[in-house]
Amino acid sequence: MGKIDALPQTLTVQGKAYPIKTGFRSWIAFEGILNRNDLTIEEKQVFALRRVLKSPAPPDPFLFLELFLQAAWFCRCGLPNVPSEDERQVLDLKKDFWAVWADFKTYNGIDLTQEDMHWWQFMALFHSLPQGCQIKRRMEIRGIGSQELSKMKDAKQRREIRRLQRLYALRDEDGEDGDSL
């Protein structure tokens, strides 16, 4: 990225620029598609790219894959892909939207139902939310593992954490995703 004030508006593959939708809603949907369990990897890539491209994807499979990798880079806001040791999902921006909305309204004065900011701006503001905010508390609760929970001496606190984990669960009791697109 060149100038600091220039947010990317395209993905470039082999010298060709592909215009993209940059609004945060499109990228929340992009992530949501990638998290679905009812699609193959190839279907996830096709549907996710369709959601964010303003024009058709290239038919060549190698160009398509390169374009998808560029979209994944954009979704990470240009940061490298650093795999986590813990595979547990603690955030789903679609399912957690109202908690995020409340925190943006409270801490940034931004009504996300009225704004359509660039994905990178949205993520910068999201990561700058304070630790005690609603969404980060949910993420913290979801991230508490059974080993960590068993080390808690206070039984009342353990019960409350378990209750909150059920309340904030990203998957239904049967292990299925709650919503689909």
Protein model, in words:
- With 181 residues, this protein is mainly alpha-helical.
- The protein has one domain.
- Helix content is 48%, strand content 4%.
- It has helices spanning 24-34, 41-52, 61-75, 97-108, 119-127, 134-143, 146-150, 155-167; strands at 10-13, 16-19.
- It has a two-stranded antiparallel ribbon.
- The chain is globular, with a radius of gyration of 18 Å.
- The two termini are 32 Å apart.
- Mean pLDDT is 90; it is low at 173-181.
Write the layout of secondary structure elements.
Layout: E1 10-13, E2 16-19, H1 24-34, H2 41-52, H3 61-75, H4 97-108, H5 119-127, H6 134-143, H7 146-150, H8 155-167
Antiparallel strand pairs: 1-2
Record keyword descriptors for this entry:
8 helices; 4% strand; single chain; 181 residues; two-stranded antiparallel sheet; 2 strands
Please outline what is shown here.
With 181 residues, the chain is mainly alpha-helical. It is built from eight helices and two strands.
Q: How many structural domains can be distinguished in the coordinates?
A: 1
What is the helical fraction, as a range of percent? 40-55%
Rg over CA atoms: 18 Å
Strand content: under 5%
Indicate the low-confidence ranges by residue numbers: 173-181
Give a count of the beta strands, DSSP E runs of length 2 or more.
Answer: 2
- The secondary structure category is mainly alpha
